[in-house]
Design goal:
By secondary structure, the protein is an alpha/beta fold. The chain folds into two domains: about 150 residues, Thiamin diphosphate (ThDP)-binding fold, Pyr/PP domains (Rossmann fold, 3-Layer(aba) Sandwich), CATH 3.40.50; about 200 residues, Thiamin diphosphate (ThDP)-binding fold, Pyr/PP domains (Rossmann fold). It is about 40% helix and about 20% strand. The strands form three sheets. It has a seven-stranded parallel beta sheet, sandwiched between helices. Strands 2-1-3-4-6-5 form a six-stranded parallel beta sheet, with helices on both faces. Helix 3 packs across helix 10. The relative contact order is 0.14. It binds thiamine diphosphate. Thiamine diphosphate binds next to helix 9, helix 11 and strand 12.
Length: about 375
């Protein structure tokens, strides 16, 4: 068995001190260590944990994700369509429930057989974590080298790998909503392009715009490609979690998350995590066209959902229904002055623009450019525009 504290401190020495995950009993001692001695963001879903960790990486952290192998399936979308194309390395620990030859419950049997095959298929480098301390130390150094080369690395963890680590603290604080503005007028239904132009007008040398999967990113790119933009081409639904990880790790930057109704509905659990952790420097804007516009305009059920109330009950400090572009502009102006985790819900028209170009840069080039911006290597006007 490995002494969990020594292992965690070894990880810390290598720079890994930011964790996100969903618990597994095989990993509970490492999770307890992370809660006791590091920053641990408990996610509602393993895919969101990967996205939170990925945002934190852009913010300069070396993040770790912890998950049961059942949850690896939840993480496939970001691992294949965020971490892979953007070359965002995270260090993962995935438990090995259902290890062939060992008695386990039936729901783990198949996943136990395919866990490492799934990692291989996703081109994630991995190793079984040794229970021998010296070997485990060497494995960690090797993993750190993979991470330095922008590739994720996962350890597959067997039962009984970590010695007991007792949980020292459990947080029970509350994030409380202070402003809730409900719908009280007719919607003017601007186009997505008009809404994005207003949002983009508030971009400055200290803000980052994260645009959700599909046409939102493509349209923002058309309006203005900029070093402080990130177009989330894949990993639908992950933009909020990614924004959370970035906002927490870069508190001096304003993080503007631009979401779609289909995407937000896909991973709505992330709002609970965002609301709880409540980064003051994040605004979450939902452009709601009641459709999956990017894939042909199929209806979503967003017309039946009160997002402002959901954000309110999740603990967003301010949650505001926005009826038109003037209100959107006013909200952004006020947010620039007062900050606080804010949710804006704007209904937009469902009419789709004919042809939108796609970012000419590769996702990993967009990431590298944003990292450079966040590290202050762009100056003056460069930081504000293309
Ligand atoms: C996990 C996953 N499922 C499905 C898709 C395909 N897809 C890409 S964009 C999109 C629609 C997104 O809808 P919404 O967030 O409402 O934005 P809109 O297209 O309306 O701008 C879908 C279904 C995907 N990329 N990833």
């Amino acid at each position: 068995m490995i002494n969990t504290k020594s292992f965690g401190r070894e990880l810390k020495k290598l720079g890994f001190d930011f964790y996100s995950g969903v618990p597994c009993s095989f990993l509970k001692n490492l999770i307890n260590y992370a809660i006791n001695e590091c920053e641990y963001i408990g996610a509602t879903n393993e895919g969101d944990a990967v996205a939170i960790a990925s945002g934190a990486l852009l913010g300069g952290k070396k993040p770790v994700v912890l998950m049961q192998n059942s949850g690896l399936s939840n993480a496939v979308s970001p691992l294949t369509s965020l971490n892979y194309p953007f070359r965002i390395p995270v260090l993962g620990f995935v438990s090995w429930r259902g290890q062939p030859g060992y008695a386990d419950e039936p729901q783990h049997e198949l996943m136990g057989r395919i866990t490492t095959k799934m990692l291989d298929s996703m081109q994630v480098n991995w190793m079984y974590l040794s229970t021998d301390w010296k070997k485990a130390q060497r494995q960690l150094s090797l993993a750190a080298r993979y991470i330095e080369n922008d590739r994720p690395f996962f350890f597959v963890v067997r039962s009984g790998t970590f010695e007991q680590e007792t949980l020292q603290k459990q947080e029970h604080s509350f994030s409380v909503n202070k402003v809730n503005v409900a719908e009280h007028a007719d919607d003017e239904l601007p186009t997505r392009q008009e809404a994005l132009r207003v949002i983009n007008g508030w971009k400055d040398g200290k803000s980052v715009q994260l645009a959700t999967t599909g046409k939102t990113g493509r349209q923002l790119y058309e309006i203005e490609d900029a070093c402080n933009n990130l177009y989330m081409v894949g990993s639908m639904g992950c933009v909020g979690s990614f924004g959370l990880g970035l906002a927490l790790s870069k508190p001096d930057f304003d993080i503007v998350v631009i979401d779609g109704d289909g995407a937000l509905l896909m991973r709505m659990g992330s709002m609970a995590t965002i609301g709880y952790h409540n980064p003051q420097n994040m605004i979450h804007i939902l452009l709601d066209n009641n459709a999956h516009d990017s894939t042909g305009g199929q209806k979503t059920v967003s017309h039946n959902v009160h997002f402002v109330d959901i954000a309110t009950s999740c603990g967003y400090s301010k949650s505001i229904y926005v009826h038109n572009l003037d209100e959107l502009n006013t909200c952004l102006e006020q947010w620039k002055m007062t900050k606080g985790l804010t949710f804006l819900h704007l209904k937009i028209s469902s009419s789709t623009e004919v042809q939108l170009s796609r970012p000419a840069m590769k996702p990993y080039e967009v990431k590298a450019r944003l990292e450079k911006f966040l590290n202050g290597n762009f100056s003056g006007s460069e930081g504000e525009g293309s």
